[in-house]
Design brief:
By secondary structure, the protein is of the alpha+beta class. It is 29% helix and 25% strand. A hairpin with a 2-residue loop joins strand 2 (67-73) and strand 3 (76-81). It is globular.
Length: 345
């Protein structure tokens, strides 16, 4: 049947189970192969569903049933999953109803939808939630903040999945922050806006302070690492430190794990599923964990120049210059807001 429809067996199985909606051409091919009218095989439900097609904006592949928010980026409707966003998952536009072969999704819209999101920002600094909340309260703009590692955030920006990306990537050749990576990944002109400088280091179970005094101690037997995803600034920092210590990645238990953010690393260590990870001092302090600093890093917001005229982007830049936001961010352990709101590079 898959061959008759000109599709993969996986796609046919998804259609048969009701998880995917066939195109008109595929539906006609299947009807012809079975010798049945197409309306006998495929028909509308008794109560029509409000289904919208959208580009998928998540870091991982979509799954039917995921809760999403919509945002328009350069005229395209993008669906971002809400499972790990700062906004509660209940404030959703809809649920993924179908996953198509081109990577787009069909979303069943909910009747009572939240205010339309004007801006989507991807990055890994949970402190950006403070800026998003202030932007909503003071300017009335709804912001969808979706966690990403820095390289994935820049990739999402390049592919038109977001308006703003956060990054804290050090170029080992030049010693410059973010700029060289942006030039490699993003094919159009951008403006870099400072957000904060933070302390990043090893987050530890409190009882491990006597056993782990630095990166070289991570290879000890029984020490379990919770790593960040590949392409994140935290994972790159760990790799640099391991190289300096002469430790191979394969020597670490848990090197292949992929936690989706600083808070996720700290939560994993606090829960006992891991002993150590790389995250910010603020994430460690929030959960009463030990912290060994490795370096200070500059976290910047990267804005495509073609978005600088958007009203919501202008409001975000205004918010970043508010003393109230800087005060709140600097209240977090290990944060310095000196660069906040200033153009970098």
């Amino acid at each position: 049947m898959a061959e008759a429809g000109g599709i993969s067996r996986q796609s046919y199985a998804a259609i048969e189970s009701g998880e995917s909606i066939p195109s008109t051409e595929v539906a006609l091919r299947l009807a012809r192969a079975l010798g049945r009218p197409v309306e006998e095989l495929f028909r509308l439900a008794d109560r029509p569903l409000d289904v919208e097609s959208a580009i998928w904006g998540g870091a991982s592949s979509p799954v039917p049933g995921q809760v999403v928010r919509f945002v328009h980026v350069r005229g395209c409707l993008v669906a971002h999953p809400l499972g790990t966003a700062y906004r509660p998952a209940g404030s959703a536009d809809g649920l993924v109803e179908a996953v198509f072969e081109d990577g787009s999704v069909g979303v069943r819209c909910l009747a009572d939808r939240p205010p339309r999101a004007e801006l989507v920002v991807v990055g890994c600094d949970p402190a950006f939630g403070l800026a998003a909340e202030l932007l909503r309260r003071e300017y009335g703009f709804e912001v969808l903040w979706s966690p990403r590692g820095s390289r994935q955030a820049l990739s999402d920006l390049a592919r038109g999945r977001a308006h703003v990306a956060g990054s804290h990537l050090l170029d080992p050749t030049s010693g410059a922050w973010n700029g060289p990576w942006i030039e490699r990944i993003v094919p159009f002109a951008t403006t870099r806006i400072g957000f904060a400088t933070w302390e990043q280091g090893l987050v530890l179970r409190p009882d491990l302070s006597q056993r782990v005094g630095g990166t070289a101690d991570l290879a000890q037997r029984g020490v379990r690492l919770l790593n960040r995803e590949e392409g994140s600034g935290s994972r790159m920092l760990l790799d640099e430190e391991l190289s300096k210590a002469g430790i191979a990645a394969g020597d670490l238990t848990g090197y292949g794990t992929n936690a989706p953010g600083h808070e996720a690393v700290a939560q994993g260590v606090a829960s006992g599923s891991a002993d150590v990870g790389v995250a910010t001092r603020a994430a460690a302090t929030a959960l009463g964990l030990g912290f060994l600093p490795l370096r200070d890093e500059i976290y910047e917001l990267v804005v495509p120049d073609h978005f600088l005229e958007l009203e919501a982007v202008g409001a975000l830049l205004d918010v970043l210059r508010l003393p109230a936001l800087r005060s709140q961010v600097e209240g977090l352990p290990g944060y310095d807001g000196t660069v906040m709101g200033s153009r970098q590079g």
